[in-house]
Amino acid sequence: MTRPRVVLISMYVGHEGVPHAGGRYLLELQRLLERETELTMLTVGNRLNHESANKPGVPGRLLLLGHEQGLGLAGKVQNRLAMTVEGAWRHRRDPGMPFVPFIVGLLRSREARAAVREADVIDLQYSESIRLVRLLRRLNPTARITGTFHDVMSQSFSREPQDSPEEERYWQGVARRSRGHEKAMVARLDEVLVFSDKDAELLGNPPHTVVHPPLSDGTEPRHPPATEPVVVVVSYLARDENNKAALWAIEHVWPAVVAQHPGARLRFVGGGASEELRDRVGCLPASSGVELAGFVDDLGAEYEAAAVALVPVLQGAGVKFKTVEALCHGVPVVTTTVGAEGIDGDDLYAGLADDPTGVADALVAVLTDTQAAQERSDRVQGWAQETYGRARFEETIRSTWA
C-alpha cells in the first residue's frame, strides 16, 4: 500500500523535552506521521526552531524557511523587509497573521514548493498556518488540506484585558477581524479539526472533527491520597496568560489558603517564568510556601506528590492540556471555567470557580479532606485516560487523510 505524502506546516516544532503542551501534541503527531506517511515538515526558520531541529522526535525531513543563512544581498534585504512588515503589522492590527518570513521562505524555496505541490495531504497546525490555506490551494489544487485549530483565536483576543477604552477598541477590533479570517479559513479546508465541541460551535459550519490530544499513555498509576499539603500548578509560564494566572493565584488566592493551612505549599512547575513572577516570589517570606520549581524531567513525580492540581487561568481559549493531564494522573483538580472549558464530563473537578474566594475555598476543602477528593478523582481517571489516550488520537488522525 502506497504511503500518503504529507506536508505538515506548523510555526513550532515538537521534540522530546519540549516545555509546552502544544509542542507535546506536535511531537505525538509527528511520530505518527513519520511512521505511517512520507512526511515533510515546514516551519519558520527562527532561532528557537533552529535550536530544536536536531533534537529527538523532530521529523527527518524538516525544512526551516525564512531567516536563511548565507543569502546574498537581495535575500538579506528580503529578510529584513519581511521582519519589518511582520513586526509592525502584527503588533498594530493582526496578532494572528501568518509569519511573513515563513511565507517569503516558502516562495523562495524550490524544495518546499515541490513538497507542497506533490503532497496528497497538507496538514496545517495552529491558526497562523491555517491562514495560508488560500496560497496552498494555488500551489496544489488537488491536495486534501486539513487544519487543526489549537484554540479559537477570536475568543482568545476577546478575552485580553481591556482596562481602557483604547484597549477595548483595539482588542474587540482584532477579535472581529479574526472571526472573519476564521470563517474564510473554515470554508477553504477539507477537514477542520478542533480539540472540543465548544470550539466547533465557535467556528460554525461545516461539521468539524474533534480530536482529543493524546495526553495519556494509559500507564499513569492510581494517585494515592496525599500525605503533604502540596498544591501544584503545571504550566509553561512564558505564555502571557499563564504568567498572569500565576500572579493572580499568588496575590489573590493563596493568602486565604495558607491562612487556614500554614504548612501548605504552592509549587509552580514549568519553565519560562517571567522576571516579574520571579521578583514577586522572591519578595515573599519563606512561610508563604510559594515555590518556583522550573522545568522538571519527571512530571509524574510532581503529580504523585501533589494533594491537588490548580489551573488558575482566566484568559486564553481552547482546551487546557494541563487540566486534562492532571485528570489523567488522578490528581484532584481545582480550576476556573476557562481552565475547564471544552472538557466534557460530569463531576470532574474538586472545585470550579472564577473568584479568588471560591478557588481558595475549594483548595482548602481538598487539603482538609484529601480522601474524599481522591475518591472522585479515582472515578474520573479512567475516563480521562481512555478519552485522551493515544489509540483514540491515532484513529482520529488517520481518518482525516482520505
TrEMBL record:
One of its GO terms (molecular function) is glycosyltransferase activity. It holds the Pfam family Glyco_trans_1_4. SUPFAM superfamilies: UDP-Glycosyltransferase/glycogen phosphorylase. The keyword Transferase applies. It comes from the Bacteria. Keywords: Transferase. CDD domains: GT4_PimA-like (cd03801). The keyword Transferase applies. This is Glycosyltransferase involved in cell wall biosynthesis. It comes from Nocardioides cavernae.
